[in-house]
Each structure stands twice: as structure tokens, then as C-alpha cells.
Design brief:
The protein contains six helices and no strands. The protein is an all-alpha fold and about 120 residues long.
């Protein structure tokens, strides 16, 4: 579902929505206790915003601050900063690939699915 949302945002040129989807994927990574992965995804979301010239809404920024603090606690400050910079260095295609990979691991298995 998240993968399709990412693809849809790019297909419809919803640049802010694409970055927001990445933020949600980062939040899910935090919820799974994967602070480093979350930091990389958050960095990718920031890179997408910078590339497209879009801003994070104030409401979403409050969530970002809360979740990024948790990710920093989970990963440790140095590891968080390195992972964030890794994500921030990605271009849009790489951010998409990262988002798809992280979304795939974030979605619960569907009953009867093989995996």
C-alpha cells in the first residue's frame, strides 16, 4: 500500500506528497525500532523537498521532530547523523527505491501471502 502511494505521488507529480510518504515510512521505521533506517528515510525526504522546492507542513514537522528524536535515541547520535546524511545525498530515483524497500519491510504480511 505504501509502495503504491509513493508511485502514485510521483505519477501525479505530487512532490510534497511524495516527501510526506517518505516521512510516514520513516515514522514506521521508528515504530519498528529501526532508528538508522528511519534516519536514512528522513534524510531522503529532506533531499526530495530540497530538490522539488517544497516545504514540510507545520503539522507534519511536529511529527517529524518527535519521530526523529526517537530515531536518534534508537540509533545513537552519530549513527543517526551518518544515516541521515546518506539519505540526504540521494537523488529522487534513489529516494524512491529506498522508500519502496523500507515500505515493503514496514507493511504487515497479508494473510495467505508468501514471504
Amino acid at each position: 500500500m505504501l509502495r503504491r502511494a509513493l508511485e502514485s505521488k510521483l505519477e501525479t507529480d505530487d512532490r510534497a506528497g511524495f516527501a510526506e510518504c517518505l516521512d510516514v515510512i520513516g515514522e514506521l521505521s521508528v515504530a519498528r525500532g529501526q532508528g538508522r533506517e528511519a534516519a536514512t528515510v528522513f534524510g531522503a525526504a529532506a533531499a526530495v523537498r530540497a530538490t522539488f522546492g517544497v516545504l514540510q507542513s507545520p503539522e507534519l514537522h511536529a511529527d517529524y521532530v518527535r519521530y526523529s528524536a526517537r530515531a536518534r535515541e534508537q540509533a545513537g547520535a552519530r549513527a543517526f547523523d551518518r544515516a541521515y546524511e546518506k539519505g540526504a545525498a540521494l537523488g529522487v530515483p534513489e529516494a524512491m527505491a529506498l522508500g519502496v524497500a523500507a515500505a515493503s519491510s514496514a507493511e504487515p504480511a497479508v494473510a495467505g501471502s508468501v514471504g
